[in-house]
Amino acid sequence: MSSKIYSAATIGLDGEIVEVEVDVLGAGLHNFNIVGLADTSIKESRDRVSSAIKNSGFKPPHQCGRITVNLAPADLPKASPIYDLPVAIGILLATKQLQFDFNGKMVVGELSLDGRVRSIQGILPIALLAKEKGFRELYVPTENAAEASVVKGINIVPVDTLYALADHFSGNKFISYFPKIEAEDLFSCGEHINDMAHISGQQHAKRALEIAAAGGHNVILNGPPGSGKSLLAKAMPTILPRLTLAESLEITKIFSVAGKLHKGQSLVTVRPYRNPHHSASSVSLIGGGSYPRPGEISLAHRGVLFLDEFAEFPKSVLENLRQPLEDGMITISRAKGSLHFPARFILVAAMNPCFCGMATDPEKICTCTQAQIVRYQQKISGPIMDRIDLHIEVPRLSFDKLQESGSEESSEEIRNRVENARNVQAKRFVDLPIISNSEMSSDQIKTFCPLNDECKNLLRNAVSALKLSARGYHRIIKIARTIADLAESENITPMHIAEAVQYRFKTE
After folding, report:
1. Residue partners of 76: CB distance under 8 A and separation at least 6
2. Consecutive H or E run containing 472
3. Choosing a second label site near 502 at 20 to 30 A (CA), which of 9, 96, 177, 231?
4. pLDDT tens per residue across span 360-417
């Protein structure tokens, strides 16, 4: 007797349908095989499924003869114990211990030895796939039900135990659908606790961060230890625009696949802020593994990636940022295939000017030689620095400035200006697959950033004096476009170009 149960696999950030086919041959010695390019965690499910079925009160597989489970399509790599529950249900169906119509139903979940259903990773992509493919019901572990319930158009059935699910399919005791969650209602909860109003002075740096937030530009903060670089970076998410539902679903898919969602969390409702230590490896930063998972740059998608002590990161690690800084995407290639993960983040880097950190401090003596200073700054390659739009000096504050209070702008005030600028960009790029000025291609710059003769002359002088690359030239225009948007100016003026140029000074 054979049976078939629909399940799913997550490949990168997308779901793929998997058919769990079970064939039981009553004659002969007991044998339990799982085929279909399954990894070790799936092959081990034979023991989990057997114990779960026995401990749930059903006839155990070892009394049923030869059992073959096929996970189709056979050429699709399968990983994680997500197939425990559909395999168990398939065995019960094939051995006639259970009878029901499996059409329109998708089942996922890991089993414990006593038949309880454990949570799994990557539920949101699976729920989106189930809806897209026309499934009526998705059976998921209870802990994952809140996450899946944000997808409208499909009924989510929370499952606690194998026995409860079998009872449901038999019609003895139905499991109620999980209540639908209105995703828009979730955005009122959760905010970052840092605020620009708590940071004294540093108006120049705050202005640069406002521009970066408004246009999605990358920033590097350079200054002596204790000048407030890390504090500014931590406050950066509080001035970014609030997440849209589409952005939230993008981010939640990444967190779901990476297993970073908190227990019972439905959506990521605030922009990510990732702060990996400078000892982080290349794989932890960009992602990877035998079955690739997202790294820190993808977890920072649509948010902030803060790299403190920028010069202390291994050069080989930082060089991996070249492609995602340019394309907003990371491609991870392995022998088994290539996967693409989104990585459209705002890079905020912080570094000291030299080994001792006092090279730019007017009140403390730097103990480094000129050669040491140059060697320290050369830890960051030219191509990486050229991809950073705004280069900001963060000076040490005086005692009087630290004592001032009540005169600083709040993050909410800055965020309002940033959101107004982003709204302008949303209208500008309404028919394009980009949402901010930093994502414009050279062709789009010509279309959306026309320059008058005065602007061109000023830009020509800047390119000549600073020996800017073609990338640096285009980035100045993008920054100027963002500054004009913040000023609610339809056209770029020489004043906007002049302010944009000053932020590129440190690259050369």
Report:
1. 9, 11, 16, 18, 36, 37
2. helix 470-486
3. 231
4. 888 888 989 999 999 998 899 999 999 999 999 998 877 667 667 667 888 999 999 9
